[in-house]
Every structure is written in structure tokens, then in C-alpha cells.
Amino acid sequence: MKKIILLLTFFIFILVPIQTRAGVSVTLSLDRQKATLSDSIEMVIKVSGTRSCDSSPVIKGLDSFQVSQGGSSSRVEIINGKFSSSVDYRYYIQPSRAGTFLLGPAEAKVKGKVFQSNISTLTILKAASPESPVKGPIFLSVALSSNKVYVEEQVLYTLKLYLKTSVSDISLQLPELDHLAFKQLEKPREYQGVYNGSTYRIIEVPYGLMALKAGNYGIKPSRMSMSAYDSRRSRRGFFDDPFFRAGRPVTIASQALELKVVPLPEKGKPEGFSGLVGSFKIEATLAPSKIRVGESATLTVHISGRGNVNRIPDLKMPGLDHIKVYADEPVFEARPDLKGLAGFKTMKWALVPEQQGDYEIPPLSLSFFDPDTDEYRIIQTPKQPLIVLPGKGKIIMVEAGPGKQNGANRSAKQGVKELGHDILPLHTSIRNLVARSSIMSGGLFLWLTLLLPFVLYLSTFLGLRLKRRSVRAMPAHRAKRAAKNLVRQCRQGRKDANSLSLCIRDYFSDRFGLTLASLTPDDAANVLASKGVDSGTAQKLRAILIEIENSVYTGQIRGVGRMNDEIPRLIKEIEREIR
Amino acid sequence: MRKGIGLAITILLALLYVTPNHEARADEWEEGFFKANQACKAGDFQEAIEGYLELIRSGHGGGQIYYNLGNAYFRTGRLGRAILEYERAQLLMPRDPDLNFNLSHARDQTRDAIEASLGFVETAFFWLGAFNLNELFWSFALLNLLLWATLIIRLFHKSEWLYYILLLILSTWFVAGLSFGLKYYWISSDDRAVILQKEVDILAGPEEDDTILFKLHEGTVVYQERSEDGWSLVRLPDKKRGWVKSGAVGLISGDRAVSATAPHSPP
Fold this sequence. Notes:
The structure holds 2 protein chains of 2 kinds. By secondary structure, chain A is of the alpha+beta class.
């Protein structure tokens, strides 16, 4: 067995290439020769005698087609001992116009050599009529609910996708036309249906179509693109799911449609017509219908219907004598359904009577064009009676904001109403009738006002510094003056021994910064010696002091007259020596 | 001693000389103010206007004179002049409710919709508009006195609480000084002007036959960039610029005496 497998492998990988080199041919084939504009045609380029090409084939004659690639597959066959191989290139082509086309030749390049295929003829017909039984497994159908409508009248444009096979990745391209607006009304729905005796899965998508301008419109086909899976292939159980299969891309188109849009008639058009087209009704309620002066009642008008509901106007409440009217923000809602676009608008007014009495709220009217009857219609609310009783002195505040419509049961303050506008009166006070400020002209007084505190501070600061400096300099000053004081005192008059003793002590105190209660001759000599005075001079002063002491203690205080001359001389000598 | 007696006599004489004269002049001003008010109340607005202008010429710049003058102009239908005088009054008494109401009322009657936007400094120093220059000056002077007084106290007595008080006073002194300086700068460089005529053409140049760029109406506040040869170059907050005859605009914080004595063209 193993030998057989090995032999086969040898033939496939060694001998087949030799065979292919021998006879390469290219064939172009179509799945049909006639088709319509909405069809997708399968085209296969088969390159026989090889398992691969240098590049994808180049096909001529596809200018009028949209081409989607469907992939390639290679095949090797051994039949009766004869080997053959081929490569298939699959394409799906969608015609963009009707006519007869020559497709091909397709050129395939194998081992650097170019091979050409045959030429095939394809006839494309215009879209088949809906009744045409010639339909494939997938086709798209569209229909209008009416072929003649008025401007802004709604018409239903229903898309139906008929399927006999599995598809995925569906995408829709609606026709684009000026002055035509599509609006999807509901989500797509899916059901089973029968067409021409065959059962199809049908996917239906409803659209509302509205023409904004009169005229004849040719609605081009809608197009759907999807991936389709061939149902003819054998089932593969679980792996038959599209997830495991590669679908072929398919683009299908619906038939084209005609729509005639006529303008709204001028005859009978109401004054102030808003352009509302469709079928509408109006309802009104007034609650409560009996209130007191100052209280409020709410008038609610509800307009609902089907048509171009966006055109429902905001109704205007006419002025009412002795009743204040506060309008609320209208509430609008549009609801598309299978029949088209429907919706409603609710308007509310708060009515606050200022006087008692029986009032009648006038009717509010709405005009619209009814396409069913081909005429304009005016509908209106009934007159609403309002009975106003005398007030109780309580004032009801009317709040005219959204969601604040229950003012009838609320009490609050009332806003102050301005009745006139004027300026306020003259000023007659003379309190500030002063001369113009001199600040702008920079008056000296003003600048002095700012500078004065600073000057005060500066003076204080400098004074303090000066004072501190004086205290520190006092001993030096006293030392400087000590000798002069002593000399002056000695010369002023004949001093006795006691006075001289005190003068010398003061000299020592001031001169050397000492605090002396008494001064002995030895102390004086020592102080002088420590200050650098010659010992001889110090001893002279010591001797004088001893003599003065003796005079004091012996009671001869007057016998020191000559000292008054000697002491100044000695002090001058001491001063010289100290320096 | 003799010197002291001489000085006292001199001061007394000076007081005797100055006080009656000053009081006499004050009486005159009050009488003029009273007469102008009476004329205004009696409906003789032109006489009232002359009375108020005379007071301003004589050196009286109290805010209520400009306010009353604005009222008199308003009554005579001269909206531009009224707004001009109200604006001047607002520089002097910015918090006066009557003035603010009347100014707002007068502004509502102007035709040009011009939105003035606040700059960064105006937004940051938002309180400046609520005080006049005098108030800011005296606030600063008081804080200045407090600051130096505190510093003097600190020369003799240093303590922690005094340090914190000094910091507080210093910061407020700084803000007050900055506010006064800014206000002083704003007033001295205020180039706002009011359109005084019913409708004026704003031209591309200072010539009669220059292209008309746009039109402004009475009461609109513009910025006067410069004046030359009887023409003023004005600017709007949205940067539109053009030339207008100088007589058609009144500078709010210009030389008020000159402005007040300028001939008043009829509306």
C-alpha cells in the first residue's frame, strides 16, 4: 500500500509538471448566455494543463460590467492512468447596461508564456417584468404603494429580497434622487412566501418615500450586495454552516420604478397653509373649566395624524380680554410604522383670568391637504366655556416652563409687571458738593499724606540708632574729656586735699572706664602701669596721692596748694604716655 | 514768648481772612446748585443745564452735578450727552443706585448693539469699578498709615502677634496700592467717548469725501485713539475703526471743563 502511495506522489509531483508543459489551454465560460440587468453572471476561466499561473488571467470586454472575484481552485485528476490538471478562476459579473457583449479573450501567463482563451457572447436584457417567471435563487423586488402622489405626500416603497439560498453580509444601496427622501419605517422582517410556485424566504424592508417637488421621477433600481452560498452543493453536516464556507459575492438589483408627483392645488388653499399633507385630527380640553380670579386653567390642544407630521404648526392663541395667556413649550413626537409616518403635537396654554365672569375660549383651527379626498380641510377645536368666580385674595403664579403645567393647584408670588420706563429723579443733597478731587492732578498734600508715615518711621528709626550709638560712645567720650576736666578743676581754684582726691578718682573712673569707690595710691600706680604708662610717672602720681592722703588724715587739707599745679602737669604727661 | 504770640495772631488773622470768603463761595455754589435743580424741576431744562455747567466750570465736580446734568440732557432728548454725563458721574459715584439705573435705562435706548468684553485685569480686579479714585486713595492712605505705625511699634516692641498683624497689613496695603495705581492709570488713560449726534458716519479717513465704513448712533460708547485736525479716530470693541468729526463724540474722562464749555449742538 505504501508503495502505491509513494508511486502516486511521485507521479503527482514529478510527472505532472512535465505533462502540463506539454499542453496548456485556456477556456472562458459563462453560466448563461442571456441575462438581465439585475442578474449576476458567473464567469469561469479554466487554465488546463497546469496547476498554477504566473498571475491572474487578464480578461477583455468587461468594460460594462462590475466584476467581483470568486476565488480560484486547482485540480489534479488521474483517470485511467492519464493525468490531467487545471486551475479555475471564478468571477461574478454584474452588467451596468443592456446590450450584447463579447467577453474575452482571457489571457493567462504560464511559465512566462501567454495563452489566450475563447471569446464568449453575453446578451443583457433590460430588467425583466415582475411577472416574468425567469427568476434565479436570489432576486430583489420593489414596489410603490401608489404611482401618483402629491408633493410631500407619503408613499410606501417596499423592498423584498427573495432567497432560496443562504446569504450573509447583506448591504443595500438605495437610489439617490434629488427632491426624493427615503425614511426607513421599521426594521426588516423575514417570512416565508411563494413566488411563481416556488417557496422563498422573503426579507421585507419598508421605506417611506416623500417627494419635495412636483415632477416625474424615474426611480433607479435599488441594489443589494451579499455573499451567497450554493445550496446545490452536498451537505457537509455541521460544516455546512456559512461560517465554514466561502460564499460567492452577489450583487442584485431591483427593477426601476416611475413616480409621478403632482403639486398641491391652488384652489381652496387656506390662508396661512403650513404645507401639512395627510390625515389629521384635533382635540382640545380645558381643565378646570371653573376657577377663581387669579387661578389658572390649562387649555390642551392635541393634533395627531399621519403624513408629513413635521409640518404640524404651532397654533397661536388669540388675545383674550381680561385673561392672561402663558404658552408652554409644545411637545412633538413622530412614530413611523408600516403604514408610514405618524405623529402628534401637544400644545398647552395656562389661562389666568383677571376678572370674574363667563368666558368662551375661541376655537383653534388647523388646515391640511387630504390626498384621499384631493381637497384642503380645516379642522378646529370646539369653543371652550370658562367660568371665573370672584377671587379669594390668593394669587396663583403661572409657571410657563416645560413640565410646569399644574399651576392651577399651586400658589406662589406673582411677578412684578413693569408699566412704564423713566429715569430716576435729581439729586438735591449738597453733602458731596465739593471741589473736584486733586488726586488726578497729584496735589502735594495727597503725596505728603502718603509720605508722612514713612517720614515718621524713618525719623524714629534714625533717632533710635543715634541714641544707641551715643550710649556706646559715652565711655570713650568721657575718657577723652577726663584729663581736660581734671586740669580745668585744678585751675579753677585752689582745691583742698579732699577735693583733689575726688578729682583724681573721677579722672581714673572716666579715663579708664572704672567704677571706683575709693582709689589707693598703689591701685592708681598699678592701673597706670597696666595702661602702658612709664613706671616713673606712675610712681610720681602714687607719691602725690600718698601726700594727699597724709594731708587728709593729718588734717592739713589746705596744705596741698602746690598740688594744684603739679597734678595737671603730671596728668598731661600720663596722657602723652598712654597715647 | 513774643514769637509765640506773633504766630498765634498771624494764624487767627489768616482764619478770619479765609473762612468767611470760603463760606461765601460755598453759599454761592449751593445756591447755584439749588437754582439749577429748581429749573430742572420746573421743566426749564436748558437753564438747568447752564446752571450745572457753570458749577462744573467753577471747579465743582461732584458726581451728583454730572448726574443731574445727565438727567437734564435726557429730558431734552439728548441721549448721547445724557450718557456722557452719566458715565462721568459714574467715575465719581460708581455705587449710586439711581445713577446706575438711569445709565442702564439710557443705554437701553441706544440703537447700536455693541458688546463690551472685560479683559483679564478688569476681571481679576473686579472691585475697581465699585470704588472711585478718592475712596481707593484714602483706603490706601489709611493702610499706609497703619503699616508704618505698626513698623514704628515694632521698633520698640517685637512680638509674634505683631509680626502676623504686620504681614496682614502689608498684604492688604499691597492690594490697595495696586488697586489705586490701576484705577489711577485707567482714569488717566481712559479713552472712552460717547457718540453725541443722532447718527454719524464713520469714515475711512479724516476727509469728508472718504468712504463711509459704517454708521453709529447717539449714545454708543467708542474708544478714541487719537484726534487730529478736528477729526477723531475711533475704535469699537470688535476692532472696527474709523474717523469721525471730533464734535460728534465726547470724551468721558477728558478735560471736563473744556468739554462742559464746548458749544452744544442741537440734537
